[in-house]
């Protein structure tokens, strides 16, 4: 047991002694085979598992020569058990499910204690949060495919350790894409509409949908089609013959020739032709030039994958499809039956960190995915030094020039301020302003609670500079000074993660406190382009978004080989507040609604966060919650496009991951955010994770998936609302012939959705249940969540900008918990822990 664990236990004992609390409620730990993990059930160990402490970064070279580079996660505890991870996980390899990994579920995070009185912090929560953000930097195409799709590559992705359940993540990304292995895609089953598009307009997703409806669908439904509808009996639909074309549709060859001529001239002059007026393309162009290899647009990529996905196996087609068996008897004992039952994992003895989820795939694939595209109105070539290939030197020169021109920018900004109040992004002579994407500007003007003045990108004298609104008020003269002359470090470190370390700084000019994130250096085995992309993602998102529930970036600068992002400072990690165990139900609801509001904003502008978790929420002393860490965020929709750009890669943190992320190579990232938000709510309420990872090898998750009249997780995850998918039909047919081992039993609180939901307050159950629908296609979307009666009824603290200074409107039914600053951030806690352990030695 680590000294930290001891410390935490001591603290817990003290807390228990003083509160007279029943610690048995809070100490759900291992869920061994045969246990349900429910509190108060026999066999639940009452001792917190060992807390892995920080371990040094290390590089692991696999037998196949590929390398995993990762650092350990850290966990901290407040009160009873406080998980915390700060992990770097960078890889260019495919992950193999290690034996350890197969034991995830055994250290039982689980649904448990009823909400009455708000349960104390579970030790499983502590252990589970070792899950780290999988930040994927590999440039390999394709994605890491978890076991469900192994059939396409015999010999790959076989289950390791005989644990059953989900077979291993298949061998390598390269094999998944590079070898032409069919990549499964969920898009075909996702009816979500992209922002600003009508519901049935998602050509991207629907396109592949149609191809997944094979003749088998017709076999089943063809006979019952209405009379005026005839079934298409082939997947090949030929174009109608056209005998004549109206003259107005005929473009003369001369016209074409002259158009292409002028295009060529534009290129020769360095004027790029806009592929899309998208946020990401605009941003991407700041750093990336068109690479000869990257000629296809993200949507093309997406479409390519779609087609390969739809050609390919459907989930149920693969032989290694995970099968669920109702492993819980009436007493809640997990007792697997049948050969296909994933065997309950055995207790983990090793550090959870060592076996935590392995990163995979290229996260960058669909993020800011338009290095190839360029701006129409403000060709980056005019404003940013460009090389033919993206490079760190681009990034450096960008930041260098940016920082040296902040002063000029700020002056310009001040002049423009008045204009900006009326028109968020204005154009003025001498200053070229990159227009904000349509959907961002729409969103900003549509903000229901106050209006928010965004920052802007200005291109001046060949430089591109970002100025956040705060910079508008800052003194231009100070801005000319180097970073170290403008800010001084103060206080302690706030935290560190996969992206870098975050520290507290003070602006000398006005003594204002900020948080500064120093991006980590590029790893040796990391592809330059991916590193640059990761940083630019955070930079671009941070500097572009403007919403009270999204952290505001003040400036970003490159100096002395360091990339520094200055952000507004929030006094508390939400995690620390949750772990204080002092939050009232109303306060939890307020925080939840604020998180949802931030997510709604992101989704409305075509962005998904993909790494929503307590750790990535900070809260200020006014009770305003802000989402941070956009290192994993992706664009899922481009303005004026109805095409869904799917995300790829297992990105996020294990306990918060949506199941489809672990199953499919590509997925809609919006339902993923929705799922994660529900897990955040469950964590706030229960002080522990419902499960450690959404895989069947996790006993708690397996029980959650049980009792649904369906034996296959693939079938559950690919369910569609209407019309039924091919897989569902198969499932339906199968269930008609053979009875499921997982018959639904709403009265059994140990299995099925009720396993989680019954632990939550009644009014929350409906929408939370819809948020954790196993099938992303059936999962509710953020807009529907916001109009849920319970969500609407939440009295939420919010910000209004009705004057020069934003004003916080506090809710009436709660105040926000504050903790001592020494316990408000993880770094402080770690320091405390170290001090204590040193004094013990
Ligand atoms: N603006 C802020 N105000 C206060 N604390 C912050 C702020 N930004 C970050 N932190 C602290 O620093 C920690 C690390 O920040 P962040 O998540 O951005 O880093 P990261 O390296 O990207 O982490 P990850 O491993 O999740 O990718 C956060 O968990 C939080 O505790």
From TrEMBL:
Compositional bias (Polar residues): 14-32, 375-410, 436-455, 736-751
InterPro entries: Kinase-like_dom_sf, Prot_kinase_dom, Protein_kinase_ATP_BS, Ser/Thr_kinase_AS
Positions contributing to ATP binding: 517
GO molecular function: ATP binding; protein serine/threonine kinase activity
EC number: 2.7.11.1
Domain Protein kinase: 488-791
Catalyses which reaction(s): L-threonyl-[protein] + ATP = O-phospho-L-threonyl-[protein] + ADP + H(+); L-seryl-[protein] + ATP = O-phospho-L-seryl-[protein] + ADP + H(+)
Compositional bias of kind Basic residues: 831-841
Biased composition (Low complexity): 33-53, 169-212, 294-336, 349-374, 411-423
Keyword ATP-binding among UniProt keywords: yes
Protein's name according to its UniProt entry: non-specific serine/threonine protein kinase
Biased composition (Gly residues): 154-167
GO CC list: cytosol
Disordered, as annotated region: 1-53, 73-111, 148-212, 288-455, 724-754, 811-841
Catalytic class of the enzyme: transferase
Matches recorded under Pfam families: Pkinase
Alphabetically ordered keywords of this record: ATP-binding, Kinase, Nucleotide-binding, Serine/threonine-protein kinase, Transferase
